[in-house]
Structures are given as structure tokens and as C-alpha cells.
Amino acid sequence: MAKPATLxxxxxxxxxxPMGSDRLYIARNMDTTSLASTxxxxxxxxxxxxxxxxxxxxxxxxxxxxxxxxxxxxxxVVFGKSGSGKSYLTxxxxxxxxxxGTEVIIIDPEGEYEKMxxxxxxxYLSFTPSSPIKINPFDLSGLYEEGxxxxxxxxxxxxxxxxxxxxxxxSGHEAILDRAFVQAYQQKxxxxxxSTQTKEPPLMEDLYKILLGMEDAxxxxxxxxxxxxxxGSLSGIFxxxxxxxxxxxxxxxxxx
Length: 256
Known about the structure:
By secondary structure, the protein is an alpha/beta fold. It has helices at about 10-15, 30-35, 85-100, 115-120, 150-165, 170-185, 205-215, 215-225, 235-240, and strands at about 50-55, 65, 105-110, 125, 250-255. A three-stranded parallel sheet has the order 3-5-4. The protein has a two-stranded antiparallel sheet with strand order 1-2. Strand 1 and strand 2 form a beta hairpin. The protein starts with 8 loop residues before the first helix and ends with a strand.
């Protein structure tokens, strides 16, 4: 750890000159790795055998090549002040990952990926109430993996979605929603049995009707909060069966 040479400025200056003279007489034990990092003619590099190029190391001119999918967790977060190049970096990495065969799915809230999508031959899907593209949040993949309860995971994701569209939900709301979700799937013949999960899933309207049919004030409150997605201005978003299938390796959902 570097420390200021308080009241020993002259001795400190002479000790740093290339004369081999130590005027401070201060020693510190260091292992070879730490000592090597202080050598002025070396610098660290980040160059893996494969991956995308993120840029050039300004200290030594080496290429920064990194494959984040080689890690156990490949998530990435980009921070920076306004105008520092966050969007440029993200688009550049997206392009280079796509060149290596990575499947790309983007949610675009500001409409900034449309030109890039067209240039790459991708599919740009506009997701608005008036759009012909529809997504049913109750969809199940129909793909079964040993030991996985897809229906249970889907119900958990529906809880998360409704917390966003409805606002805060207490434990009473969540308990009633959980029962309503299970009942909505059961009405379509869908259970935890994977063989039933290829059937047509319920719609948001089915959930709405189940909540209305419950003799509970909390259920009525939930139905009222959900009504705008069934009969109101947002009825064209979640209340129809999905009518698209992601097949293009570069797909962008526009929510602008």
C-alpha cells in the first residue's frame, strides 16, 4: 500500500531516482505475483482464446476478447454517464455475438434497434394494443425436463406479471390469485402432468371470470383491477392467444 512520505519528501524523491539509493528504509514483504504487478514494463491483459472483441487495451494495445458465456453466470450490466457510449457498446456486442451464432432476443422500449434488425435480416415485432402481434402470458412451452414443474414456474411468473400491471399485492391477493390461476388451467384440462400442457392455454379473460365468480371481496377487487386488460383500453395486449412463433435468430420486440 502506498503511503505519503510525510516530512520525508526529499528522501522519498531521491529514493525513486534510478540511483539504487534507499533513503526511506521502509521494507514490505510481497509475494512474487504482487511484486510482478509493480514492474513498469508489464500490464494485465484480457484475451481469451474465443469470444467477441470488446475493444483495445489502452495500456498495451492488446485486444480485449472475452466470452461471457464461458462463465457460470453470463449476465452483463452496462453502467456509464449519458453519452458515454452504453448503447453503442451494447449494439456492437450484440452484432458480434450474432456473428458467432448467438440467438438474440431484444426488448426495445425506445425503438432504437429497428434499423439494426432490418440490416441483419431479423424480425421486428411491434407490441402495442393495436398491433396484430399478440402474446398470451398463460402460454406453456410444452417442453418437459426431468424434475421440472413447468406449470408451477409459469404460475410464479404470472404472479410477477400481475404485480407489475396491478400494483402492490398483499398475501391475501396472492393466495386468491394462486387459486384462480390453477382453476383457469384446470378448466382447459391442464394440470402438472406434462402430457396435458400442450393443450390450448387459458386467456386473461378466463382468469377475470373466475375472480368474478368467487364469493370474496378481495377477488372482486382483483377482477376490477384486471378489467382494463379485458374490456378497457389495454384489452388488445394480453387477452388473445399468441399468434407468432420465434424462429428468426435475431428477434426484437418493440414496446415504444
